[in-house]
Write a sequence for this structure.
C-alpha cells in the first residue's frame, strides 16, 4: 500500500496560538480517510496545509515520499494534482459550465478539449440541464454539486473535502456522497474528508483519525474506530459528540 | 447659431480628448488598481489613500501644472503639446487614471477572499488569480470606466488652460459653453449643454449594456 | 514525476475577451493620440490676445481673410492681458495683440519682443444703470465721473484681473487719488473675470463699470446698462501687435507672425479694421503710422 500523503511532526500556530501541535499521520493511496474532531481542533488547517495553501511552522508533508517547497513550481504542480471542496460553495460569477471549466482553462486545455469532460462532470452530479445558467442562481445544494463537478473534472489524485455537505439537505448529502464514492471507484483517487457528521464518516471512510488538542490521537479502520476505540479520548468524543 | 460644421468639430474634439483620456485611464488604471487591490506590498495602504485623495484633485490645478510642464519655457516644452488636443489628453489623463484606479481598487477588493482560496485549490497561480479577480469584479471595473469618462467629458478647467479653447482645434463642448456664457449667448450655451448630455447618455447606455452582458 | 518547464502559464478562456478589449482600447487610445499629435496644421501661428479683443469678434472676422490671402492659419488664445504677455514671454505664443501700452513697453524693454506696431484704438466707456445714482451721465471727463462714484459710494464692478481694461481703470482711480480696496469698501466689487461676465455682473447689480465699446455693443441687448461717459481721450484703448523674439525661443514662428503683423498694418488690413462694425457701430479706428522705431 503506497503512502500518498504523510505528515511528520507538523506544527502550525496562528497569532501565537498553537493550533496543530505535532501531527503525524499517513494516508494510503486510494483510500478514504476521515478526519474527525471537535470544532476548532484544526481539521481545516490540516487540509489547507495538505493543499499547499499554507506552510507548516515545523515538520514536513510528503507527497509520495517527496516534500515540496511552498511557492515553488513543484508546489504548483502538486497542488494541481489535488482539489479541495470547501464547506460554503463559492462559485464564480459565471455560468455553471464556465465554473466547471475553470480549472481546465487554468491548465491550458483548449475550448474543444473542455467541452467533453465538463459536460461529463455535470452529468456526474446531475446538473447537465443547468449548464448555461448563472451559477449564482442555483440553490446551495446545487452550487455545492457544481463545486464537486468543478473539482472532479480535473481528475485530481487527491480529493480534499472540508465539511462539504454540512449545510445541505439529506437528498444532496446523499447525492454528493454517492458522487464521492463513484469518483474514487473510477479513478482510484485518495480522499481525505473532514466531517462533523460521524454517520457520514461511517458511510464513506476506510479509516478514521481523531484530531484533538492539536494532535492525532487515534487512527483506526472505520469499524474498529467506532465499535472498539482504543483510546479513552476517542471513547469520550464518540459518546459526548452530537452527530447530525 | 447655424455654424453646424463648427459644432461638429467641437463634438469630434470632445470625443477625441475625453475618449482617449478615458482609454488611457483604463489601460493604466485598471491593471494598477487590480495590482494594489490584490498584492500585499509595503506602502500599499499609502498608495491606496493616495489614489483616493486624487479624486478630489482640482482639475483646474492639474491643468495649471500640466500647462507649466508643457509650456515652451517648461521642462517638456520641446514636445510642443501646449494648445493641442494632445496636451489636453495629458492633462485629463492625469485626472482620470487615479479615478479609474481608485474605483477598480474598491471593486476588486470587494471580491470575496474565499474565491481566492477556491481559485488556488483549483490550480490557479497568483497571476491567473489576478486575472480571475478582475473578471469577477468586472461590473465594478466597467463602473470605473464610466466614472472616468463622466469626469473627462464634463471637465472644463484643465482643458481650458492647457487647450486654449482655440476654435476648430482645442475647443470642446465644456469650453464652448464657458465661452458662449461669457458672451451671454445663453441659447448657444444651452444647446452645447444638451449635446453634451446626449453624448454622455449614449456612452453610458452602451457601457451599461456591456455591464449587463458581463453579468451572468 | 518531473515538472514540465515554464511554458508560459495558461490563462482561463475569458482572458481572451479581456485581452481583446484591452487591445481595442489601446489601439483606440493610440489612434486618438496619433490624431491629436497630427492635428496642428502645418502653417499656423499662435496669437495671444485678450478676452475683450476676442469678444469684439474682430479676429473671427480678420483671420479667415488673412488665411485666404497668405495660407497661414491664426490660432488665437484669448486670456487676460497679463497672461497673454506671459505666454509671449514663455514662447508659447508667436505673436500678441493686446492693449496695455505700459506693460507692452516693459515687455519690449526686457527684450522679449522682436517688433511692435501700433494698430488701432477703440474706446472705453463708463456704463451704468439708467437710475444713475452717482449722477455722472454726460460727464465728459472720466476722472470727474470716477470721483463722483467714489464720493457717492455707488456700486462699481472692476474686472480685477490685470487686463488692459483693468489697468486703464486703475490708472483713472490713481488720478482721482483712490486706491481700490474691495476688502474695506463694500461698493467696490472685483469680478476677476472677462468683460462679458463683468458687464453681466454690473447689469445684475445695477452697478457702474468701465468697459470697452466692442464688448458693450456686442452684449447691449442682454444688459440693463447704458453709456454714461464717453469721448474722454484718456479713455482711448490702444492696441498694438507684437511679434515674439525668436532669439529667446527658437520654436517661435517669427516669419509667420511678422507676416501677420505686416498684413494687419497694410492698407488692406487697416481698411478691414476700419470697416468692422457691431450692431451698426464702427468699433476701431486704425492708428498706424509707418516708420516708427521698432515696428514690424
Amino acid at each position: 500500500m503506497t503512502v500518498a500523503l504523510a505528515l511528520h511532526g507538523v506544527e502550525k500556530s496562528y497569532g501565537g496560538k498553537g493550533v496543530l501541535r505535532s501531527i503525524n499521520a499517513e494516508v494510503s493511496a486510494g483510500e478514504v480517510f476521515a478526519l474527525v474532531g471537535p470544532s476548532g481542533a484544526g481539521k481545516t488547517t490540516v487540509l489547507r496545509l495538505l493543499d499547499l495553501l499554507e506552510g507548516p511552522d515545523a515538520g514536513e508533508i510528503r507527497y509520495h515520499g517527496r516534500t515540496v517547497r511552498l511557492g515553488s513550481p513543484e508546489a504548483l504542480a502538486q497542488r494541481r494534482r489535488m482539489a479541495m471542496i470547501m464547506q460554503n460553495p463559492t462559485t464564480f460569477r459565471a455560468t455553471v459550465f464556465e465554473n466547471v471549466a475553470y480549472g481546465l482553462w487554468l491548465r491550458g486545455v483548449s475550448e474543444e478539449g473542455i467541452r467533453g469532460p465538463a459536460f461529463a462532470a455535470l452529468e456526474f452530479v446531475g446538473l447537465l440541464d443547468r449548464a448555461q445558467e448563472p451559477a449564482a442562481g442555483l440553490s446551495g445544494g446545487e452550487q455545492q454539486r457544481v463545486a464537486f463537478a468543478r473539482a472532479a473534472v480535473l481528475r485530481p489524485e487527491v480529493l480534499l473535502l472540508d465539511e462539504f455537505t454540512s449545510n445541505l439537505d439529506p437528498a444532496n448529502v446523499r447525492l454528493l456522497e454517492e458522487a464521492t464514492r463513484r469518483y474514487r471507484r473510477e479513478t482510484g483517487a485518495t480522499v481525505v474528508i473532514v466531517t462533523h457528521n460521524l454517520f457520514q464518516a461511517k458511510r464513506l471512510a476506510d479509516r478514521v483519525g481523531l484530531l484533538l488538542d492539536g494532535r492525532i490521537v487515534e487512527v483506526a479502520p472505520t469499524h474498529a474506530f467506532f465499535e472498539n476505540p482504543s483510546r479513552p479520548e476517542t471513547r469520550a468524543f464518540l459518546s459526548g459528540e452530537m452527530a447530525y | 447659431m447655424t455654424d453646424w460644421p463648427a459644432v461638429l468639430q467641437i463634438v469630434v474634439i470632445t470625443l477625441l480628448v475625453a475618449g482617449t483620456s478615458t482609454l488611457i485611464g483604463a489601460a493604466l488604471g485598471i491593471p494598477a488598481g487590480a495590482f494594489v487591490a490584490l498584492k500585499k506590498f509595503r506602502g500599499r495602504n499609502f498608495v491606496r489613500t493616495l489614489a483616493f485623495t486624487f479624486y478630489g484633485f482640482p482639475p483646474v490645478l492639474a491643468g495649471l501644472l500640466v500647462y507649466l510642464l508643457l509650456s515652451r519655457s517648461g521642462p517638456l516644452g520641446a514636445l510642443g503639446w501646449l494648445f493641442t488636443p494632445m496636451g489636453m489628453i495629458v492633462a485629463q489623463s492625469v485626472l482620470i487614471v487615479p479615478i479609474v484606479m481608485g474605483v477598480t481598487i474598491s471593486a476588486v477588493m470587494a471580491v470575496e477572499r474565499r474565491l481566492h482560496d477556491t481559485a488556488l485549490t483549483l490550480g490557479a497561480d497568483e497571476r491567473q488569480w489576478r486575472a480571475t479577480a478582475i473578471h469577477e469584479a468586472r461590473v465594478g471595473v466597467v463602473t470605473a470606466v464610466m466614472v472616468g469618462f463622466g469626469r473627462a467629458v464634463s471637465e472644463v478647467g484643465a482643458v481650458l488652460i492647457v487647450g486654449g479653447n482655440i476654435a476648430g482645434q482645442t475647443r470642446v463642448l465644456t469650453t464652448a459653453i464657458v465661452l458662449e456664457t461669457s458672451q451671454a449667448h445663453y441659447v448657444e450655451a444651452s444647446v452645447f449643454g444638451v449635446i453634451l448630455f446626449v453624448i454622455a447618455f449614449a456612452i453610458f447606455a452602451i457601457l451599461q449594456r456591456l455591464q449587463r452582458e458581463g453579468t451572468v | 514525476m518531473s515538472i514540465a518547464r515554464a511554458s508560459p502559464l495558461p490563462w482561463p478562456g475569458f482572458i481572451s475577451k479581456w485581452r481583446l478589449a484591452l487591445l481595442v482600447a489601446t489601439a483606440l487610445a493610440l489612434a486618438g493620440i496619433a490624431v491629436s499629435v497630427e492635428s496642428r496644421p502645418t502653417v499656423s501661428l499662435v496669437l495671444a490676445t485678450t478676452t475683450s479683443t476676442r469678444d469684439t469678434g474682430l479676429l473671427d472676422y480678420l483671420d479667415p481673410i488673412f488665411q485666404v490671402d497668405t495660407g497661414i492659419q491664426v490660432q488665437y488664445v484669448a486670456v487676460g492681458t497679463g497672461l497673454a504677455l506671459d505666454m509671449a514671454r514663455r514662447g508659447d505664443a508667436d505673436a500678441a495683440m493686446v492693449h496695455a501700452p505700459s506693460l507692452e513697453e516693459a515687455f519690449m524693454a526686457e527684450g522679449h519682443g522682436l517688433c511692435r506696431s501700433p494698430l488701432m484704438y477703440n474706446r472705453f466707456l463708463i456704463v451704468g444703470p439708467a437710475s444713475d445714482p452717482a449722477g455722472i451721465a454726460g460727464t465728459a471727463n472720466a476722472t470727474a465721473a470716477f470721483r463722483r462714484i467714489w464720493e457717492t459710494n455707488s456700486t462699481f464692478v472692476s474686472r480685477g484681473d490685470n487686463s488692459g481694461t483693468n489697468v486703464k481703470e486703475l490708472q483713472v482711480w490713481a488720478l482721482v487719488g483712490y486706491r481700490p480696496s474691495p476688502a474695506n469698501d463694500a461698493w467696490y466689487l472685483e469680478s476677476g473675470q472677462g468683460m462679458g461676465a463683468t458687464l453681466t455682473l454690473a447689469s445684475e447689480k445695477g452697478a457702474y463699470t468701465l468697459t470697452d465699446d466692442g464688448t458693450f455693443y456686442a452684449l447691449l441687448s442682454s444688459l440693463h446698462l447704458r453709456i454714461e461717459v464717453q469721448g474722454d481721450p484718456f479713455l482711448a484703448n490702444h492696441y498694438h501687435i507684437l511679434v515674439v523674439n525668436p532669439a529667446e525661443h527658437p520654436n517661435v514662428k517669427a516669419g509667420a507672425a511678422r507676416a501677420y503683423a505686416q498684413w494687419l498694418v497694410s492698407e488692406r488690413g487697416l481698411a478691414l479694421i476700419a470697416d468692422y462694425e457691431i450692431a451698426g457701430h464702427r468699433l476701431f479706428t486704425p492708428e498706424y503710422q509707418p516708420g516708427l522705431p521698432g515696428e514690424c
